[in-house]
Design brief:
heterodimer, A: 248 residues, six-stranded mixed sheet, 9 helices, 25% strand, B: 223 residues, mainly alpha
Chain lengths: 248, 223
């Protein structure tokens, strides 16, 4: 199998704080990896390193066969990597001055020089796919949170990424809208998209993940098939974390 | 001492044709200066938020110098001081436009800096994560949003600068106040003439406020 992401001995600091400690992790093509852990454990930082939104201090990182250098190194591969990696944020980060459709068309037109006609058709197709074809000409602020996050997914998909990163995609949503976003992600996983998902949705993790990774204080403490991690965690810190989040 | 003063409407009306000749100068200095000031504001405002110290420091120095000294001193320096340096006279109109440009440029730099910094950093992250370059991210995502937020303070600066041009009567540009002074020298109707001058400034600034309010409403309608 092709490996899309490879991390070897990766370390990351915020000042003196050691946020990622000797991370070894690889993600295979088509694999859905769900990363769980407490707030501040470094799980968001981990996926933000994959597309260079965070720099790391030491170790090796390869994304889709291209090495991304540690801080201070040659970052030439970054532009190519970002074209291949889509990202969905907790706060959606849609562009408020552009219509929904223009949000989706922007990157293909600017980065890939896709023609207006093609970009337009792609945007319409993707909006249908995430179930909001009728909202194309509205501005993001006129949409519900769930709809906005689905637009954000469509926007990332418009670049035809090889890998999708999800950084707590449902954490800012009202409870009744979480389902519609998870449905889109579930579909995406079914179609074979490679995904790295940071989430607190344990039900989603159990159902959709090929592998669950538990991070504690910047270290991968446990990983495995969802059933193994959730039903039979080996590490006591995983046990403690799961008993807290699964209790309610 | 009881005042026998009566407002002389005829004197006020008579002064209008002469005073009105000052308006083109007032407008030319204001808007000529503001146009250049806007360009300076974009350049120095963006430089002042640059991480490179050799870009940031000169920009910050410019902003602090022109915000921290009176515009009257600035225009006197340009008109009377600079000719010593460049070895030739500067005409009053040019000096006035230069003073408004440099002065408003410093304030507009701060408006630009504030506008750009007010945009959530998630916007830049979204742009970069989609593969846009830093400059594409800035000009197609950050700037349009920042500019919208800059419209009210820019309008404010325009009004301040229009009023500042009244100080340039000291270097003899035939703007509104200068016209008033010249007129009063022969008619001695100070009250009436300055009253008309004030009304003319008000007409200019109120029209501008009105236009800005319309622009703002249109700009905000889509967000």
């Amino acid at each position: 199998m092709t490996q899309i992401v490879q991390m070897k001995g990766m370390n990351k600091y915020f000042g003196k704080l050691h946020v990622l400690k000797d991370i070894d992790l690889s993600v295979e093509q088509g694999e859905v990896v769900v990363i769980i852990g407490a707030s501040g454990s470094g799980k968001s930082t981990l996926i933000r390193c994959v597309n260079g939104l965070e720099e790391f201090e030491s170790g090796r990182l390869e994304v889709d066969g291209q090495a991304l250098a540690p801080k201070g190194g040659n970052q030439q591969s970054l532009a190519e990597i970002r074209k291949e990696v889509g990202m969905v944020f907790q706060q959606f980060n849609l562009f408020p001055h552009l219509t929904v459709k223009k949000n989706i068309m922007l990157a293909p037109q600017k980065v890939k020089n896709t023609s207006q006609t093609v970009a337009n058709a792609t945007a319409e197709r993707l909006l249908e796919r995430v179930g909001i074809g009728s909202q194309a000409d509205k501005y993001p602020s006129h949409l519900s949170g769930g709809q906005q996050q689905r637009v954000a997914i469509a926007r990332a998909l418009a670049m035809e990424p090889r890998l999708m990163l999800f950084d707590e995609p449902t954490s800012a949503l009202d409870p009744e809208m979480i389902g519609e976003v998870l449905d889109v992600m579930r579909e995406l996983a079914k179609e074979g998209m490679t995904m790295m998902v940071v989430t607190h949705e344990m039900g989603f993790a159990r159902e959709v993940a090929d592998r669950v990774i538990y991070i504690h204080e910047g270290q991968i403490v446990e990983q495995g098939k969802p059933d193994d991690v959730f039903d039979n965690p080996q590490n006591e810190r995983t046990q403690a974390f799961l008993s807290r989040v699964l209790a309610h | 001492m009881d005042s026998q003063f009566q407002f002389d409407w005829q004197a006020a009306i008579n002064s209008i044709p002469f005073l009105i000749k000052g308006i083109p100068y007032t407008l030319m200095i204001s808007f000529g200066g503001l146009a250049i000031g806007f360009a300076l504001g974009i350049i120095f405002g963006l430089l002042s938020i640059n991480k490179q110290w050799f870009l940031k420091w000169p920009a910050t120095a410019y902003i602090e110098i022109f915000r921290g000294t009176p515009i009257l001193v600035q225009v006197l320096f340009i008109f009377y001081g600079l000719p010593d340096l460049i070895g030739g006279p500067i005409d009053p109109l040019t000096a006035g436009i230069a003073a408004i440009a440099l002065n408003s440029g410093a304030y507009i730099s701060e408006v630009v800096r504030g506008g750009v910094q007010s945009i959530d950093k998630g916007q830049a992250e979204a742009g970069l994560s989609l593969g846009l370059t830093r400059s594409q991210t800035f000009w197609s995502i950050i700037w349009p949003q920042a500019f919208r937020r800059m419209i009210p303070p820019l309008g404010n600066q325009a009004i301040v600068s229009i009023k500042d041009t009244s100080l340039f009567s000291v270097i003899g540009v035939g703007e509104l106040v200068r016209q008033g002074q010249v007129y009063i020298a022969s008619t001695f109707t100070a009250f009436e003439v300055y009253f008309v001058v004030a009304i003319m400034y008000l007409a200019i600034t109120l029209s501008l406020s009105l236009i800005l309010r319309l622009v703002e409403r249109r700009g905000l309608a889509s967000v």
